[in-house]
Amino acid sequence: MVLVLDPVMWCAVRFAGGFCFAGLFTIVESWLNSGVTNRDRARVLAIYRMVDTGSVTSAQFLIPLFGAGGFTIFAIMSIMITLSLVPVSLGDRSNPTPPEEVKLDLARVWRISPLGCFGCIAVGVTNSAFRTLSPVYAEQIGMSVADVVTFVSVGIFGGAVIQYPLGYLSDRWDRRRVLLMTTCCAMFSALALVFIAGSNPLLNFIIIFIFGCFAMPLYSLSAAHSNDRAGKGEFVLINAALMLFYSFGAIGGPFAASTAMQYFGPSALFVFSAIVYAIFMAVILYRMQARSGVPAGKRSRFTALLRTSTVFARLARRNGDPDNAEGP
Known about the structure:
Blueprint: H1 7-35, H2 41-59, H3 62-66, H4 72-83, H5 85-90, H6 106-112, H7 114-140, H8 145-172, H9 175-197, H10 201-215, H11 218-228, H12 235-264, H13 268-290, H14 311-315
């Protein structure tokens, strides 16, 4: 990417990079899944999530440290990817057991939980727009490079902080009510960024933290609602399909939001997100009238899910899940 500064070439490299990283996550999570037992599954899952969240958040600060332009930042990324091979080379040489094949049936999963599927698409639209374009928003309202990085990191950190309390609440209330409340808070915090934060860095940091608290957990809440409707053996099928629905939204979200920003300015990013959340709220209210909720005794337990590979759904299974096996 440093050697050829061409948009078409960068798109091709980004596509190839995304394909490769999807493969890397699949291999890593297959390795974890093959070695974990039900006794230590929760601990491994927690460590994996901590490493993921910590890495994503802390890596942002390499930009003000080394600069966004030039060769340095790309060289550091290449070095880190290369160094990741060292523990694999020094560790156990055995290969993970290949996971069983997942046959995607999007129509079937949509019939099981239309609200969960629509929610994952909506969250894909908004979260991908935030992750891709929030640095552009922050830069265009006058933030420094360090402030831009802090702005993005604070939003991601907010989602990690509040995710489990919201999940705990959704295990005890009608999950759709928690989903409605969380979406409403995400919408109002997005509007607060537009009409209250202005170009004040501190106000932006505070409100983006609140926005992240409610915007980031929406995927896991939507997935938890879908899993409440899952039958025996459908847990992995549903979560694989939901990840694909999320990807559909994630493809179109940045393009639509960037078009809005181009014509209406940087604040249009969060106006766009607020509109998507308003539509999602309308769908939630409609589904609450169209279908009764799942009784508390029949709900699955909330699990904070990563959208890395379909193998993560197997890793996240717990004792008592409909299709959980006794072994690794």
